[in-house]
Amino acid sequence: MLAARGVWKRFGALQVLEDVTLEVQRGEAVGIVGPNGAGKTTLLDLVAGAARADRGAVFLGGRDVSSLGAAARSRLGVGRTHQIPRPFAGMTVFENALVAATMGGGLRSSEARGKALEALEQTGMLALGNRPAATLGLLDRKRLELARALATAPRLLLLDEIAGGLTEPEALELVEEIRQFHASGLAIVWIEHVVHALLRVAERLICLAFGKVIADGEPQSVMSDQAVVDAYLGSAA
Ligand SMILES: Nc1ncnc2c1ncn2[C@@H]1O[C@H](COP(=O)(O)OP(=O)(O)O)[C@@H](O)[C@H]1O
Ligand SMILES: [Mg+2]
Q1: Half-sphere exposure at residue 8, Cβ-oriented, CA atoms within 13 angstroms
Q2: DSSP 24-53
Q3: 164 close to ligand 1 (CB < 6 Angstrom)
Q4: Residues 6+ apart with CB under 8 A from 8
Q5: Distance of CA 160 from the midpoint of ligand 2 (Å)
Q6: Which residue puts its alpha carbon closest to atom 12 of ligand 1?
Q7: Is the pTM of this model over 0.85?
Q8: Are 24 and 187 spatial neighbours (Cβ–Cβ below 8 Å)?
Q9: pLDDT tens by residue, 44-77
Q10: From 3.90.1010.10, 3.90.930.60, 3.40.50.300, 3.40.50.2000, which CATH number describes the 1-78+197-220+230-237 domain?
Q11: What is the 3-state secondary structure (H, E, C) of 114-181?
Q12: Which of 8, 93, 168, 212 is deepest in the core (most CB within 10 A)?
């Protein structure tokens, strides 16, 4: 359903992505790991349409969407969460989900209300619907990020370090929700440093290091791959 083929991205003097290919089948859950600065978020930006590749192309359901922006790709079924939650702080939780359903999902008002409520329900945020987003703690901000992505009615969900910064029980709670979304048929691409959380959902892992895919395959074998181990040790040094 998704294919980013041979994408390259440079910021100034920095070659951030170099000939990266990421393919995701319908309903598949793919994890992305790799040291800080490897280009993981940038790859998600290229898929979501938040940035354009310098070279290469992005296909959704066989269609070349390389020239489409984020709003258009959202309407084609790409939902994403951000590493740092980005709610509209001045709006309530419900309004945030409603904006996502309307703008990102392309739904009309009554449908959008229903979709927004459903997304809040799915993420355990319904009771907080009237709270200003600015007053939420980190777990609830992450949940709202997830609710906003779900409110756009995605077929492909892109998660950027959604478990990062949470306590262990909080992370596990969120993982359980994500497992259920996946079980209901949603394809997922999930960047995560909390690897044990990722391994509960991902069927396949990709490791990015210095802008290149250095491993792609069965999760346990990717995590024990020498090049992957070296990339992490190198980044810790
Ligand atoms: N908009 C940007 N302008 C300049 N440099 C950027 C931009 N976005 C990312 N970078 C740089 O690209 C590299 C990869 O960033 P990123 O994709 O966020 O990595 P990761 O998510 O793997 O930690 C980093 O060195 C980062 O500083
Ligand atoms: Mg990142």
Answers
A1: 9
A2: E-TT-EEEEE--TTSSHHHHHHHHHTSS--
A3: no
A4: 15, 17, 18, 19, 20, 53, 54, 55, 56
A5: 7
A6: 16
A7: yes
A8: yes
A9: 999 999 999 999 999 999 999 999 999 999 999 9
A10: 3.40.50.300
A11: HHHHHHHHHCCCHHHCCCEHHHCCHHHHHHHHHHHHHHCCCCEEEEECCCCCCCHHHHHHHHHHHHHH
A12: 93
Q: Is the CB of 40 under 6 A from ligand 1?
A: yes
Atom of ligand 1 nearest to the CA of 36: 23
pLDDT tens string 155-177: 999 999 999 999 999 999 999 99
55, β-bridge pairs: 8
Question: Given the structure tokens 């994890």, which residue do they identify?
Answer: 31
CA dist list (Å): 111 to 98, 114, 129, 146: 10, 5, 17, 19
Contact in structure between 219 and 208 (CB atoms under 8 Å): no
- Among 42, 47, 82, 212, the mutation site with the greatest number of ligand 1 atoms within 8 A of its Cβ is 42
Residue identifier of the C-alpha nearest atom 9 of ligand 1:
42
> Hey, where are the domains in the chain?
1-78+197-220+230-237, 81-154
Q: Which ligand is nearest to the CA of 34?
A: 1
**CA-angle at 41, arms to 115 and 182, nearest 5°:** 40
- For 39, the token pair is 């280009």
- Of all atoms in ligand 1, which is nearest to the CA of residue 39? 17
The dihedral built from the CA positions of residue 211, 215, 220 and 223, taken in this order, carries a sign that is negative
